[in-house]
Design a protein that fits this description.
About 40% of the residues lie in helices and about 25% in strands. It is an alpha/beta fold. It has a 7-stranded mixed β-sheet, sandwiched between helices. Strands 6-7 form a two-stranded parallel ribbon. Helix 1 packs parallel to helix 2 and helix 2 runs parallel beside helix 3. The mean pLDDT is about 95.
Length: about 200
């Protein structure tokens, strides 16, 4: 099959890596939730050989992720496991770190809450969480392009949309996590780093 490709992933993988790598220096394993095309997984696993990068997604996205993983042939990159935020049990538990990119504005508000319910249950006691994507601050868009993107998302699915930074931090706090960094990223995105 032809490998899926996202230009956005290609554009943001290096800026994310620059901020993510120092955050994960003491971590042995990362679970990526919503691996999408698989591009981030390959890039990050290749750059951080000290950790095991576990891909995951809904079943219908697995073929694309597998094609990226198999081509990369990295010993610390594992084939995707099925992870559905609608399901409370996750295929991996007691996870040292969780990473997700461009997911929380795509799924419904209920599934964002389910995501944090899963983090609460499955992240290790001293675990770390990294979330990449666009966020609003005090209910306001950070750019006209984000406002347009939000309108596009809501037209496609009224339950989706750019989330409020404060709400995400509140859910993280309920999961026993504290915000340690909020990095401004290219294209009006953020990288939020939390520790338990």
């Amino acid at each position: 099959m032809t490998k899926p490709f996202s230009q956005a992933c290609e554009n943001n993988k290096d800026p994310i890596l620059q901020k993510l790598a120092p955050f994960l220096t003491d971590v042995a394993q990362v679970l990526e939730i919503g691996s999408g095309t698989g591009q981030h997984a390959v890039h990050f696993a290749n750059a951080m050989p000290n950790l095991k990068w576990q891909t995951s997604d809904l079943r219908h996205n697995h073929d694309g992720i597998i094609s990226w993983c198999e081509e990369a042939n990295l010993t610390n990159l594992t084939l995707p496991v099925e992870l559905d935020l609608n399901v409370d049990s996750w295929p991996v538990t007691d996870i040292p770190a969780i990473y997700t990119a461009n997911t929380l504005h795509i799924v419904s508000k209920t599934l964002v809450e389910q995501f944090f319910k899963g983090v609460t249950a499955h992240l290790a006691a001293a675990g770390k969480l990294a979330i990449y994507g666009p966020f609003n601050y005090q209910g306001n868009f950070t750019s006209p392009s984000n406002a347009e993107f939000d309108a596009f998302l809501k037209m496609r699915d009224p339950q989706s949309g750019i989330r409020d930074f404060e709400w995400i931090c509140e859910l993280a706090e309920q999961a026993g996590l504290a915000l340690v960094q909020d990095h401004a990223m290219p294209a009006n995105n953020r990288l939020l780093l939390f520790k338990r």
